[in-house]
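How a chain folds remains the central question behind the approach discussed here. The record that follows shows the chain in one-letter code together with its fold in token form:
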Amino acid sequence: MYQYIVFNLDGIKENKLYPGMAQLLRDLKERGVMMAVMADKPKDVVDGILKECEIDDCFSAVIGCEEDEECETWTQVLSMALSVLKKKAGRRFKPEKALMVGARSFDVEAAKQEGIASVAVAYSQAPEGELSACGSDFLVDSVEQLEEIITGEPVYFKYRNKNAFTKTIEILLPLFLFWAVELIVYNVGYVLVGKYVPALAEHKNQLAVWLNAVASISTWPMLARLYAQTYCGDTSYVITRRNKALLKRDAVLVAAYAVALGLGLNILTASLQVFRISEAYEQVAGVQYSVSLPVGLVIYGVLTPFTEELIFRGIIYNRIRKYFPMPVTMFASALIFGCFHGNMVQMMYAVIMGMALALVYEIYGRYLAAPLLFHCSANMLVYILSKSNVFSKGSTPVLYGVALLAVAMGITSWYIQRLMEKRNRR
């Protein structure tokens, strides 16, 4: 990440930082983001300005234009900044994670020449209309919005002028495409099996399981493409690496959270016989548990969670997050996730699990492996116990379910507190 700050250069003593900029720079430095400042003034002048503003320790490189240096164009200055940072970062240097933050159109043009992303700051003193027409990757109105770009927070402010219909279509279209592909593959497969392997077609439940698995896998290329188009992660390789390290450290906690919530909900559902309100649920259960345990674990413990996380968190969640703040996004994505399951019992279960999945997704910086670990952990254990008729026997006391849900609520509260602290630091 490369930071360019615009100052009023009438004199070193007269320079003022934009409100919130000093705190942003210190926060980014604390998080390990490498930054460089560029200016069309001699380096000693730039150093003096940074020192006067008390931000000189925030930058890994300061690039000024001396008379004896080659800085005929702004692109050459940016190239020098990139070279210095590349030398200091070593193997950590990722050009695709670089970001040029500028206040004039020539900043954006230099970034294009160097093949890196750019942010134009509309709160600067650029002539009216210049920045909106310069073709930057992002256009922000405040330091707060700039922070969201750099740290990977979804920038729903950028899309505020889109109407509700356009937003709805963009959010739900991937789900309809997903359904369409699955439906086509499933039905074509059913016809082909019935025609060429009639013996297999007689086992309708097992056939349904295998066809659902094939249909699910067939959507992966499309979903992967949509995910790549949708996902807006942080611009810093350091932040990405730290999110991965944090998940690795907390892997047992995430799995325990999933098990406590999933198992607690299933025990409560079985004890209260909630499943009796939906015949569709019993039909679905009959299909899912018709195959052997190893097959069921692979399909419902791995393949299904992978597909659902790709579509519901990776694509739909991130698309909603572009337009709405985090609490609204969590609830809306969980509701869509619940409705997808079709019957009342699974819908209630999926909405609650969807909220927890969204929370885990946000805690670990929208790193998709986090909700995937949660989803797989819950599905595998629940499938094993359901296959063993633990829930249907009704032998598990309801207090066990309540105790497990209490544990899950405790972890939920801790995660929410952690998320709030993370946001308050910004």
Notes: The CA atoms of residues 151 and 188 lie 45 Å apart. The chain has two domains: 2-151, 164-424.
